UniProtKB/TrEMBL annotation:
Species assigned in the record: Novilysobacter ciconiae
GO molecular function annotation: ABC-type vitamin B12 transporter activity; porin activity
Annotated GO CC locations: cell outer membrane; pore complex
Keywords, sorted A to Z: Cell outer membrane, Ion transport, Membrane, Porin, Receptor, Signal, TonB box, Transmembrane, Transmembrane beta strand, Transport
Protein's recorded name: TonB-dependent vitamin B12 receptor
CDD domains according to UniProt: ligand_gated_channel (cd01347)
Residue ranges annotated for the TonB-dependent receptor plug domain, each copy included: 55-160
Annotated signal peptide: 1-27
Length: 627
């Protein structure tokens, strides 16, 4: 594997300049939308673009904080998300390999993904590079299920997932470090710091991860070998990741705040393929926010950022091609408290996507402008939400979406909620403009969702049951009549999600169960088929308990069968895995973690022909001095 230190060094140098600037200033140690939150474990911002207690949010949502991330000993974002309510993941052969996430049975490009408020994802494929997001640099993840185009625009059919990079909220200086290793030649290292002065907050983190991997693909016999192979390549397919995160902020006074953040992840990925078998990738997010609290009832914020998603592909040592997509975005948002428990949010979004690389597109950039409004109200035991958004795009023109939500608290800790929303997905550059294949006349895919939920809280337990029904029209697929992509498909997704969190006999319980029924309603031979690579049933359960300085935990994940193709001829059987965890605090600052993943060495696949890891062990030593 080759190393690419030059770009990373440049990113480190630029980011350290940001951190140095921040040492002369002070702002809240969170992204701008969370600036007014006092307890990060109890609020969520993604569901409404404003900070709200999780219990008051009408959309089905889940928050994974840093404590839960470290307790899980997850070594990737997909490892952390796999099996959670509404989520199905498909991976093509281990760490660094192409990974798709399906939320509530929607397509893998039907989920908006944000990093510190900046939208990420490839403009060509429409997919977010989950495999290149460094889990060690993440502070928390917010998952919101259901349509959110009325707040976030295109692609929020299945929901929104927002990732927040590391933050340090306490005063003083807080260093940290970890080192680890395990099966398949895995080793990793990370270090960082963060802190606050009277008027500043700042921080930086670096993480390195390397694995020799395993054989990613066992192809079927030629000529249709699968994995893009005419013949097997029984070698190990490794992955290297170098990642850095930097942030800083300045508190001018009680009204004005400035925040800056940057994250860059560089990957070196080996895989199986006849045309290419090695790629060097970059995932970069840079952004900032200026906020003005005009009064206790009015706040104005301006957020801007850029996401870079690029990849260069090689066949052994020969360069075969590459691409890069840049997404610039900006948001102006005003939050107005009209009366106690009545909040009006008004905003304007702008974004521009640009594509460059070896492929020459007829159109290589497009812009989108949007305005949105949301009203949140609480009347006694009742909560109401209403939102509307209008997008104006260079390619497809105008599109309007809306959403409604209602909830009520009833006796005994019970609550009921219901919602309705429309959403859409914009065609990507491959569908629109790829030479000899694209169709510039494509229109957005459209959806409509109705959902209802029942929840209960009491005695340290939280239980939520949500059901949904989604219809999607104008799905983009190959149209044989014109020999190009067309808006020819339709689909229906419906299902239910159960989440249970609490404590029994000093064991912390976090469990979820999902059922999703997908149906292709496009007519022809596909009509009535299941949508590919979505498991119909899935479950995840984690148990953790501390015994003084010692902690034990386990996570079980089970997923039902799925089809790998639209014709439903290639079936992938269901599977179940069990991970065992242990942790011991050697001192107040030093702890050792041990994990045995897939303890029973189950053989399973989430995409046809692509292998998943068998039994693996990993040890990690963490140093985090108390302030």
């Amino acid at each position: 594997m080759r190393s690419t230190p030059t770009a990373l060094a440049a990113a480190i140098a630029a980011g350290l300049a940001v951190a140095a600037f921040a040492t002369a200033a002070n702002a809240a140690p969170t992204p701008a939308p969370l600036a007014q939150a006092t307890d990060l474990d109890q609020v969520i911002v993604t569901a409404t673009r404003t900070a709200n207690p999780v219990a008051d949010v009408l959309a089905p949502a889940e928050v994974i904080d840093r404590e839960a991330i470290e307790r899980s000993q997850a070594r990737s974002v997909t490892d952390l998300l796999r099996g959670r309510a509404g989520i199905s993941i498909s991976n093509q052969g281990g760490a660094g390999k192409l990974t798709s996430l399906f939320l509530r049975g929607a397509d893998s490009d039907h989920t908006v993904v944000l990093v510190d408020g900046v939208r990420i994802g490839s403009s060509t494929s429409g997919l977010a590079a989950w495999q290149n997001l460094p889990v060690e640099l993440i502070e928390r993840i917010e998952i919101v299920r259901g349509p959110r185009s009325s707040l976030y625009g295109a692609d929020a059919i299945g929901g929104v997932i927002q990732i927040f990079t590391r933050r340090d909220g306490d005063a003083g200086f807080a260093p940290r470090m970890h080192v680890g290793g395990g099966s398949n030649g895995a080793h990793e290292f990370g270090t960082g710091f963060g802190g606050r002065t009277q008027r500043s907050w700042f921080g930086a983190d670096y993480a390195f991860q390397r694995t020799e991997g395993f054989n990613a693909c066992d192809p079927a016999p030629s000529p249709f070998g699968g994995c893009g192979l005419a013949a097997p390549e029984p070698d190990k397919d490794g992955y290297i990741q170098n990642a850095i995160s930097l942030r800083g902020g300045y508190d001018f006074n009680d009204a004005w705040q400035l925040q800056l953040h940057a994250m860059r992840s560089e990957g070196e990925n080996e895989y199986d393929g006849d045309y290419t078998n090695y790629a060097e990738t970059v995932q970069q997010v840079v952004g900032g926010n200026v906020s003005w609290k005009a009064s206790e009832r009015a706040k104005l914020s301006l957020t801007a950022g850029r996401n870079v998603d690029s990849s260069d592909q090689y066949k052994d040592e020969a360069f075969m091609g590459g691409f890069s997509t840049d997404r610039d975005s900006a948001t102006l948002q005003a939050d107005l408290t009209l009366a106690p428990a009545h909040v009006l949010t008004l905003g304007a979004d702008w974004s521009r996507d640009q594509v460059s690389g070896d492929t020459v597109y007829e159109v290589d950039s497009r812009s989108n402008r949007a305005a949105f409004a949301q009203f949140q109200s609480r009347l006694g035991a009742h909560r109401l939400e209403a939102s509307v958004r209008r997008d104006d795009n260079d390619q497809f023109g105008g599109h309007t979406t809306g959403g409604l939500g209602w909830g009520v608290d009833i006796a005994g800790g019970w609550r009921i909620k219901a919602g309705w929303g429309t959403a859409f997905k914009a065609p990507n550059f491959l569908d629109l403009y790829y030479p000899y294949f694209g169709n510039p006349d494509l229109v957005p895919e459209e959806s409509e969702t109705a959902e209802i939920g029942l929840g209960w809280s009491g005695h340290g337990w939280n239980v939520d049951l949500d059901a949904f029904h989604t219809k999607v029209d104008n799905l983009i697929a190959f149209d044989g009549a014109i020999g190009l992509p067309g808006n020819v498909d339709r689909a229906r997704m419906r299902g239910a999600e159960l989440g249970v969190r609490g404590e029994v006999a000093e064991w912390t319980v976090d469990a979820s169960f999902s059922v999703v029924d997908t149906e292709n309603r496009s007519g022809g031979f596909q009509d009535g088929n299941e949508l590919p690579r979505r498991a119909g049933k899935s479950a995840r359960a984690s148990l953790d308990r501390a015994f003084g300085d010692f902690r034990l935990g386990l996570t079980g994940i089970a997923e039902g069968s799925r089809y790998d193709d639209v014709a439903n001829t290639v079936s992938l059987p269901g599977y179940a895995t069990l991970d065992l965890r242990a942790e011991y605090a050697l001192t107040d600052a030093l702890s050792v973690q041990a994990k045995l993943a897939n303890a029973f060495d189950r053989d399973y696949r989430t995409a046809a022909y692509y292998n998943q890891a068998g039994r693996e062990w990993h040890l990690t030593l963490r140093w985090t001095p108390r302030q």
